[in-house]
Design brief:
7 helices; Barwin-like endoglucanases; 284 residues; 2 domains; two-stranded antiparallel ribbon; alpha+beta; six-stranded mixed barrel
Length: 284
């Protein structure tokens, strides 16, 4: 389904400090109520195969958004997830007074990454069919293709730039308004959508607040690889977030290593007492 939402005026948060690496993510997982703030993040200067698309009108949408005259499609489901709101954990309230300094809704901890967006292309026809052009037009198709009907663009990371700030978010829905604009998303064309000042990207309240976006603000965006993504609040939440999953694996490996070491020490202790006890009996 297409995500078709109108822009909302944000109450921007101005991060001032920086936490780096997995340590910052680990701190947040251990105490999710601890506020996290981040320094403005500029794009890395290393070469990227994905160019910036500049001066693109951005609108705001959110999980659980009800249909309106300007947005006839509800956002309780996405183009790839019929239970999107449920899997996210609830209504991603865009009201700035109902959100935390960690860019999340105040009423619950999201089960998916609150830094999400929509672009106007769907690589699927239905749950069992992938569009034929996707194989040749999507740069990472071969790398991510699993089976027909399984999206290779869902979850892809995107950098969004506004003034001197850059935010990173995952592609989780299609829109605004159209779902077949491959020449814009993967080519050099401008967005073919004419609504909302020709909006070419929908962004979540978390992205809005981090960048300080207003009504129909123009942004730049481009696709990014995992190794281009710096530390930031976009790495903190979500079962669909590869950084969170990597941290969970790391923690599991550490726990397994600790358990193995404790078992090794227990066996050494038991062997010591067995031998010591045998020696005392022989001396009697």
């Amino acid at each position: 389904m297409a995500a078709m939402a109108h822009a909302q005026t944000p109450a921007p948060v101005s991060p001032t400090t920086s936490l780096s690496g997995l340590a910052g993510v680990r701190q947040q997982l251990q105490n999710p109520n601890t506020p996290r703030v981040f320094a403005p993040t500029m794009p890395r200067l290393s070469y990227s195969i994905y160019p910036w698309k500049t001066e693109i009108s951005a609108t705001i949408f959110w999980i659980g958004e009800e249909p309106t005259a300007n947005n006839p499609t509800p956002n309780n489901k996405s183009s790839w997830d019929v239970n999107w709101e449920q899997n996210y954990g609830g209504f991603d309230n865009p009201d700035a007074t109902k959100r935390t300094v960690n860019y999340t809704p105040a009423s619950f901890i999201p089960k998916q990454n609150p830094f999400y967006l929509a672009l106007p292309y769907n690589d699927l026809i239905d749950s069992s069919t992938t569009k034929s052009e996707a194989r040749t037009r999507i740069p990472w198709f071969k790398k991510k293709f699993v089976r027909p009907g399984k999206s290779v663009v869902e979850g892809q990371w995107v950098a969004i730039r506004y003034l001197n700030r850059v935010c990173y978010a995952q592609w989780e829905d299609c829109g605004p308004f159209v779902t077949d604009d491959i020449e814009y998303v993967f080519g050099n064309a401008r967005p073919k959508n004419a609504n909302n000042n020709g909006a070419g990207i929908d962004v979540s309240p978390a992205v809005r607040d981090y960048l300080g976006l207003g009504m129909n603000t123009k942004v730049d965006w481009r696709f990014v690889e995992m190794n281009e993504i710096p530390d930031g609040p976009w790495r903190t939440y979500g079962t669909n977030n590869p950084f969170v999953r990597a941290l969970a694996v790391e923690k599991s490996n550490q726990n397994n290593a600790l358990a193995s070491r404790l078992e090794e020490l227990r066996k050494m202790r038991d062997e010591y007492f067995r031998q010591n006890g045998s020696g005392q009996l022989q001396n009697r």
